[in-house]
């Protein structure tokens, strides 16, 4: 796996924390969706 750095706003960070969201997993899933759509 590769590591990437992203920048998010403070309000986004708070929402992620409140939702107990795994940001890495979320981004990977969304990327997979986009990849599938464009194939």
Describe the structure using short key phrases.
2 helices, single chain, 39 residues, mainly alpha
Detail the topology: elements first, then pairings.
Layout: H1 10-19, H2 23-38
For the biggest sheet, the summary is: none
Distance between the termini: 22 Å
Computed CA radius of gyration, to the nearest angstrom? 12 Å
Structural class: mainly alpha
Molecular shape: elongated
How large is the count of helical segments? 2
Can you tell me the residue ranges where pLDDT is under 50 for at least 5 consecutive residues? none
Percent of residues in helices comes to 55-70%
Topology, number of strands: 0
How much of the sequence lies in strands comes to: under 5%
Arithmetic mean pLDDT: 96
Helix and strand element order:
HH
Number of domains: 1
Describe this structure in words.
The protein has 39 residues and is mainly alpha-helical. The chain has one domain (1-38). It is built from 2 helices and no strands. The chain has helices at residues 10-19, 23-38. The radius of gyration is 12 Å and the shape is elongated. The mean pLDDT is 96.
Brief sketch in words of this structure:
The protein is mostly helical and 39 residues long. The protein contains two helices and no strands.
């Amino acid at each position: 796996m590769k590591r990437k750095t992203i920048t998010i706003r403070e309000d986004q960070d708070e929402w992620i924390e409140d939702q107990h969201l795994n940001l890495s997993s979320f981004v990977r899933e969304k990327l997979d969706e986009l990849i599938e759509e464009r194939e």
